[in-house]
């Protein structure tokens, strides 16, 4: 394989080409895949992963990661439902959920950036703590939604497309702009590339990391609200394993685990690959047991690709 071909296949353009080819093959070989109903269902199924991937991209690009996202999504959904039921106001419930999600993210950021605790240990601890809070608050049971208007957050449509899909697309655009066109995005990539050089250049690295985790918590809250609306209840065990799917999607999309490299286009493609893989398995009636194997293989392939990209991008000498 020539060097130029290798660069194409491992680069962002190569990822899009591979995705387009795979999409074409699946469209021609899997019955009912390319129907409007299935396409909308596929996009609906990746809303949670897609939203959380927007900010996980920033965490990974800055050499951090967050294992607590699944617990934060479940906890925020629980808070939204319980606060709405208790106050009789959906708006207050949503604000409470957004505040709690942001607080969890900010707590992660402060512990990691100010107290210099490893992100793996910190977010692993937070994952357990926040999931525990969700279980304690609900006594381990699902909490039903009292106000049917809450359902409209996920059931409503605009131009025949469900609202959550529009929300996901909006977040893709906003965080893509944030990454590529703002000082915040450039500083994030700089920190991931070389934290010490960024600090010497005047970037407040600790403050940036706290902001990134706070954004992660806020977006998890949005995802939790939409998920609770879609499943018509607050579920303390919702979004279990979400963190692995989100990290897989980001790394598949070219976000480097070593930091310093990320593109929004790549993340979108990675999210769609995850969604298509699960959708095809469902259409082909593949048992859920085998789907775990496939998800694991996708994660392994994602890490392998990240390693190959790092090797390809390393200067020779």
Please tag this protein with its features.
single chain, 317 residues, mainly alpha, two-stranded antiparallel ribbon, two-stranded antiparallel sheet, 4 strands
> What is the percent of helical residues?
over 70%
Which of globular, elongated, flat, extended, rod-shaped describes the shape?
A: globular
Q: What's the helix-strand series?
A: HHHHHHHEHEEHHHHEHHH
Class by alpha and beta content: mainly alpha
Largest sheet: 2 strands, antiparallel
Low-confidence stretches: none
Average pLDDT metric: 91
User: How many extended strands?
Assistant: 4
**Number of helices, counting only DSSP H or I runs of 4 residues or more:** 15
N/C terminus separation:
21 Å
- Which radius of gyration do the C-alpha atoms yield? 20 Å
Strand residues, percent: under 5%
Q: Give me the side-by-side strand order of the main sheet.
A: 1-4
